[in-house]
Amino acid sequence: MSAASTSTVMPTAEQHGLKKHSDGGWGLVPVQTRSERFKSVDVNDFEAVTGREAVWKLSPVAKFVDLTSGELDGSPYDIESNLRQAQDGADVTGVTISWVDRSDARIGAAGTPEERASANAWSHFEKALLVSITGEEAKEVTIRRTALGGAARAAHTVIEAAPFSQALVVLENAGDARLTENVEIVLGESANLTVVSVQQWNDDAVHLASHFSRVGRDAKLKHIVVSLGGSIVRLNPTTLLAESGADVEALGLYFADAGQHLEQQVYVNHDAPHTRSRVTYKGALQGEGARSVWIGDVLIGNKAVGTDSYEQNRNLVLTDGTRADSVPNLEIETGDIAGAGHASATGRFDDEQLFYLQARGIPESEARRLVVRGFLSEIVQQIGFAPLEERLQGELEAELSRTRPS
């Protein structure tokens, strides 16, 4: 064939099976890295959730359709805090709590929804709860919600830590709820912030949450998730290590009883040089139908030279009839790192530990409780706030007292 008559037929997207994804915004190329997922604050930009999407395939989506697709009550709600419980009767110095309008410039500073429940909450909240922290002295703040009720709700919280500030913020959740929400956490330069989210909902509660954190230069965030109560709790923390020297320690503790679904999808994005992350989630499961899901994504971007990262998930199965899904993922786009790794393990009691304790006269039931308590207490002990640590240890004892080994 002559050169003049030569033709080239370009393959079409359809020939390779490429078509728009049902989760919205997919286009003609597959998502190659975690950071390329579609994002939007508008719920209408996402297709209806079917349970076949990657972000929903391990979740009982039929049980919370009202939170992913329905109208939501986004009005402000009652909260309790310790700000006026200081010894002198005054507010805690350097902390203010207020409701701000959707137009506030701080809203959206930490992240953008990647799935429909988060976008639905963003589309419906009327005002955001703002926790503003200043001052270099250490301080503790507790915010408690107990009266959300059984109607489908949306909420939005912003925690802003000014440069060089220090604080521990505890977000306590209890009572009835059908809630989807977003929590934004923004750390300025050299800020040191601990955020603890405690879920002790009533048995029928459903709670879907996305936490977005942006950690600035030489700032350190300790983010702790404790999920004990509720029918379905799905709390997904995302952390952007945005500037040099940023550091995150992401910790999680969960105890799933019969019929409970406790889920965490953790994402750490190293987007700056010389950043550090440590992810440790631990859970225990007991009872028929107890279910936990942990997905850990760590992305080390091409600018993140000198990164030091490690993630791990450990699950302890106490009875038959439980299921623990654990999926660690690690993406590395630069070869110049200090270190990176991941680990996952799910199993029953260590027979050698039980034998050691029983050989010293400890009854088997008590030996089992000691092993589980030691396994989970590693997370509790890193909170750094003795009153909360003591209360959570008591809650774990109550959970263990109901354990019936298989």
From TrEMBL:
Q: Where is the composition biased (Polar residues)?
A: 1-10
InterPro entries in the record, alphabetically? Fe-S_cluster_assembly_SufBD, SUF_FeS_clus_asmbl_SufBD_core, SUF_FeS_clus_asmbl_SufBD_sf, SUF_FeS_clus_asmbl_SufD
User: Where in this chain does the record put each SUF system FeS cluster assembly SufBD core domain?
Assistant: 151-375
- Give the residue ranges for region: Disordered: 1-26
Q: Name one Pfam family in it.
A: SUFBD_core
Similarity annotation = Belongs to the iron-sulfur cluster assembly SufBD family.
Give the matching NCBIfam families.
sufD (TIGR01981)
Question: What protein is this chain from?
Answer: Fe-S cluster assembly protein SufD
Gene that specifies this protein? sufD
